[in-house]
Amino acid sequence: MHAEISFIGLFLEASLLVQLVMLLLLGMSILSWALIINRRKVLSTARSDADHFEDKFWSGSDLSRLYHESNARRDDLAGMEQIFHAGFKEFVRLQKQGRAQDSILEGTYRTMRVALSREVDRLETNLSLLATIGSISPYIGLFGTVWGIMNAFIALAEVQQATLSMVAPGIAEALIATALGLFAAIPAVIAYNRFSYQVERLENHLANFMDEFSTILNRQVMTGAN
After folding, report:
1. 139-172: per-residue pLDDT in tens?
2. Are 156 and 167 in contact (CB under 8 A)?
3. How far is CA 212 from CA 60, 94, 135, 137, in A?
4. Cβ contact 104:218 at 8 Å
5. 91 CB contacts (<8 Å, ≥6 apart)?
6. How far apart are CA 213 and CA 88, in angstroms?
7. DSSP string covering 128-170, please?
8. Contact in structure between 153 and 167 (CB atoms under 8 Å)
9. At 99, is the secondary structure helix, strand, or coil?
């Protein structure tokens, strides 16, 4: 309880600029944790949905039936199922137009590539903000520290006899700004690195599925041509 009162006391006695720095860092920390919780949920759901759809895809289900199941809830599709839906829809459309084999496969692959790019953009949403918080928070905290220490020494120069007890509160409030900067930055940096790695793995997973699906469609085109 004493530490809490001391912290609040130091905050209230700090200069206005240092108080603003502390509040800004506290807000950035709260924002980063909200983003961390949200991205963790999104990426976990994306991995689970990809595994579920991949199991269904390789279970031997007919592609047309699988497409109709996906088409029935096309507004809610994401990830691997969205890539499959977009690719198969384009494949059927180009086949009905009587396009050449190469044209059908190229158009289908290009459509799936666009779907993959949109999915990666969705997964990477707000990751750049996490990176920004992680990179600038220590410098904002350091700015508050420098300003607070500067004010402490200016006040110290105005008295005849200086003591440690006179300068200690000012230095302590300044160092709190640095601590808050690190408190905001460290989780943001760790989360950004972890989430970036997870997005990269998911992207590779989806890209591998896209290539395998293209191979299946290529085989269907070749079989139909024969």
Report:
1. 999 988 888 888 777 767 666 665 666 666 667 7
2. yes
3. 14, 19, 39, 44
4. no
5. 104, 108, 217
6. 9
7. HHHHHHHHHHHHHHHHHHHHHHHHHHHHHHTSSS--HHHHHHH
8. yes
9. coil
Extract the tokens encoding 41: 């949920």
Residue matched to tokens 């070749």: 222
Task: Provide the residue type at 12 as one letter.
Answer: L
Q: Are 176 and 10 in contact (CB under 8 A)?
A: yes
> Alpha-carbon distance 132 to 143, whole Å?
17
Q: Tokens 């990426």 belong to which residue?
A: 43
Per the CB < 8 A criterion, the answer to whether 174 and 152 are in contact is yes
- Looking at the whole model, is its pTM more than 0.70? yes
Which amino acid belongs to residue 8? I
Percent of the chain residues past pLDDT 90, beyond the cut: 43
Return the SS3 of 37.
helix
pLDDT digits (tens, 9 = 90+) for 2-60: 444 466 666 666 678 878 888 999 999 999 999 999 999 999 999 999 999 999 888 87
Q: What pLDDT score does 196 carry?
A: 95
Q: Which two tokens stand for residue 207?
A: 């890209």
Burial class (CB in 10 A: 0-12, 13-18, 19+), 161: exposed
